[in-house]
Amino acid sequence: MKKGNDSAFFEEFLNHSDSLDFQKVFKVILSRWYWVAGSLFFFGISCFLFLKLVKPKYVASINLKYLDKQTELDEITSTKPTYLINDGSNEYLTEKYNIQSQEVVENALTKLRYPFTFYRLKDFRHIDIYPYKPLTIKILSFDELKFKTGKFSIDPALKFSYQSENYIKTFKLAKGTICSVPGLSFQVEQINITEKFDIEFVYNNPSIIARDFIKRIEIIEIEDKMPVLTVSFKHHNKPFAKDFLEKLLESYQVYDLRQKQQSSDLTLHFIDDQLKVYSDALREAAHKLEIFKQKNAVFDVSASAIGISEKTRDIEQRKNESEIQKAYIQTLEKNLGNTFEPVNYLSVGLDGTTDAVLVELLDQFNSLISRRKELLMKYSINSSVVKNLDEELGKFRRQILDNILLQKQKNAGTIRILDQNLESLQKQFKQIPALEKNFLYLQSNFEVNKNIYSLLLNKEIESSIVRAGMLPSFRIITLMEVEKIFPKPVQIITLSLFLGFLTGISSIFLTRYFNKKFVDTDLRNASGHVHLLGLIHHFKHKPGKESKFDLNTFLSDQSIFTESVSTLRTRLSFSKSNEKLHQEKGKQILVTSQQSGEGKTFVSVNLALSLTKIGKKVIIIGCDLRRSKLHYFFEDPNEKGLSNYLQKKTDLQDLIKSSSIANLDYIPAGPTPFDPAELLQKDLFQDLLVHCRKEYDYVFLDSAPVGLVSDNVPLLRESHIVLFILRWLYSDKDASQLPEKLALDYEIDKIEVIVNDFYPDNLYNSVTSSQSYTHQYGYDYQGKTYFNQQGKSKITNLKKRLGLHD
C-alpha cells in the first residue's frame, strides 16, 4: 500500500514539474547584457595588463640516452667498470643528481661567462636583456664573505651608481674604470650602450645562483626502465635558457668523463711508480752486464748451465710479478678504507689471475654504495633503511678484507715457494765454474728486469688507450627545444573570456538568487481565496511631503501607467462581491498591505480618479490613524479629520471634504490619536461608513498595513472587496503569502492582489516552461509620456527596451 502511495506521489510530482526554458534563460541574460559586457571589459583589461606586466617563463629541454658502451675499445677489452649502466638497471636515474650537483652547475655558469645580469626598466617591470650586454666587464676580485648583494644602476644620463642595504656609491662611467665595492672589484672594458634607458644589473654570485638554478633543473624519465632522460631548465629569458642548458651539458660531460677516468688514472699512477723502480733496476743490470763483458771474453756455456739460468730467470720474473700484485692488493686494501665511496679495481692484476670471488665482492660492494647514495637523496643518514644498508655494506667490507687477506696469504705462499725454488737452483748454480756463473747471473738479472719493464710499458700503453677512448655515459638524441610555458596568450585570453562570461552571467543569476524582494507576479502559491487583480506600472513622480501634484493631470495621458490603472478599474467594476453584506448601494473597498511604503494611498487615489472618469461618485477615507499620507495628495493640512470625528471633536459636515476633481471627496485621517484601534471599532465609525455607502458609489478605506498593526482587522470582513497591495521589488519576498493567511484566518471569501510600481524587467522572469498568469501591457504610444510631455527621446525608448528604468 505504501509503495502505491509513493508511486502516485512521484507521478503527480513529475506531472507538475517545470522544465527549463532556454529562450527565457536567454532573455534573462539579455536583460543585463551590459553586466556581461562590463565583466568582459574588466577581464579583458586585466588580461591585457597581465600579459603586459607578468614575467614570462621559458623551458629549454633536450633528451639524453645513456649508453652501455663506455669506450671505443669495449669490443677489444673484456674489462667493464663497475659504474657501467647495464640493461635492466635503473642506475642511470642516479645520474640526475650528478647533473643537478653544485659543482656541475657552477662550472656551467663559469663556461657561460656571464658574471652580471642586466635588466631594462620598462612598463613597471625589470626585463632581462640577455644576450645584450651594455657593459663588457672583467672581474678583478671577489670575496663572498664580504660581498653584500646590491644593484648597480645606469640612468639615461649615464650616471653610474651602486646601492646595497647600507651602502651607496657612485662611479664615473668610462672605459677602463675600476669599480670597487665591499667584496667585489671589476673593470669596465667596453661600453656598448646604444639606447638611453634605465639599466640595472646585479652580480651573479656563483654559489647562490647555482643553488637557485638547481631548483629550476628538472630531469624526468621518458618511460619506465628506458635509459632515456629529459633534461629541462626554466628561465624567464629565452636565449639564456638555451645557452645555459648547452653549457650545463658540456659541464656534465666533463664531470662524467673525469669520474670515469679516475680508475685509469690510479692504474697509470701505480704503473708509473713501478716503472721508476724497474727502470733503475734494469739500468743497473745492463750496466753490470756490460762491464762484465768488457772484462771477460764472451764464451759458450754448457747446456745445463743454460737450463738452470732459464729456470732461475722465470722464477725471478714470477716472483717480481707477485711482488707487484702484492703491492696492488695493498693499494686496494688502502682504498677500501672505512668510507662509503666506490672502490676502483680496473686492471687489478698484471697477470689476469686475480681471484674472481674478490672481483664479484667488489662489484656488489660498489652497487650497494651507489644504492646508498640514491637512498640518501630521500632519507636521512639515521633512517632505518640507510642503517640496514650500512650493516650490509659492513658485511661486504669484512668479506672483502677477508678475501684480501686470503689473497695476501696466497701471494706470500707463492713468493715463499718461489724463494725455495730459487734457493735450490742457486745450489745447483754454485757447481758451475765461477766465471760462467757470474755471467749467467748477470744475464739472468738483466733479462728479468727487461721483461718486467716491457710488461709494465705494455700495461701503461693499454691503460692510456682505454682512458683516451672513454665515452660519456650519455648521448644527445634530440635537438634542443625552447618553449614558452607561461603565460600562453591563447589560453590566457580564452580563460579571460570564459571568466568574463561566467562572472557576468553568475552575477545575473546570483542577483536573482539572493533577491529577497517580491518579484513573483504569478502568485503560484495562491489558493482560490486570493486572486491577482492586476499590475500598476511604474509611475515616475511619486507624491511625498515636498511634492505637489495637480490631480487634474493625473491619468490624463495615454501612458502605460494610465492604461494599467484603467484596466484595474474595469476589473474592479466587474469584480464579484457579496451584495448582501450591506443594504446600501455603495461598495466598500478596503486597501491594505504588509508594510508601509507599498503604495496603498497611491493606489487608492488613482483608482478613485479612474472611477470618477466613468461618472462614479467616490470617497476616500484615511483609516490609517497612525501614519496617513492621504492629505498629501489633496494638499490638506490634516488638522481635522477622522480621528477628530471619532473623538466627537467635529461634526460630519466638516469631516467630508471635496477635492478639485468632480465626484471625488475624501476624509483625512487627522492628527494621530492615543488609541487608534479603539476609535475604529466605535459605532460612530460604522455610522460614518453607512452614510458614505448611501451617498457614494465606491468607498475606499485607506487603512494601515495589516502586517504591522491590527487596526483594520475588523474591517476585513465588513468590506465588499479587500485589495492587498504588493510593491514590485520593495515588498518582502514572502509578503504574497499574507493574503492567503488573512483569508483563512478571518474567513474572507476573496482577496484581490494588486502589484504596484511594476516595470517590465526580464531579469526576474521565470526561466521554466510552466504556464503562468501574467499581465503584460503592450501599449507603447510613441511621443506620449507622463503629464503629456511630448517627444520622448530615442535614448529613453532604448533604455526602456533594455530594461533600464529610472
Automatic annotation (TrEMBL):
Q: Does the keyword Flavoprotein apply?
A: no
Q: What is the lineage of its organism?
A: Bacteria, Pseudomonadati, Bacteroidota, Cytophagia, Cytophagales
Name of this chain's protein: non-specific protein-tyrosine kinase
Q: Which InterPro entries match?
A: AAA_dom, Bact_polysacc_biosynth/exp, GNVR, P-loop_NTPase, Wzc-like_C
- Catalytic activity from the UniProt record: L-tyrosyl-[protein] + ATP = O-phospho-L-tyrosyl-[protein] + ADP + H(+)
Q: Which residues form the Tyrosine-protein kinase G-rich domain?
A: 435-510
GO (cellular component) term, any one: plasma membrane
| Keyword field | ATP-binding, Kinase, Membrane, Nucleotide-binding, Transferase, Transmembrane, Transmembrane helix, Tyrosine-protein kinase
The keyword Membrane belongs to this UniProt entry's keyword annotation: yes
What EC number(s) does this enzyme carry? Answer: 2.7.10.2
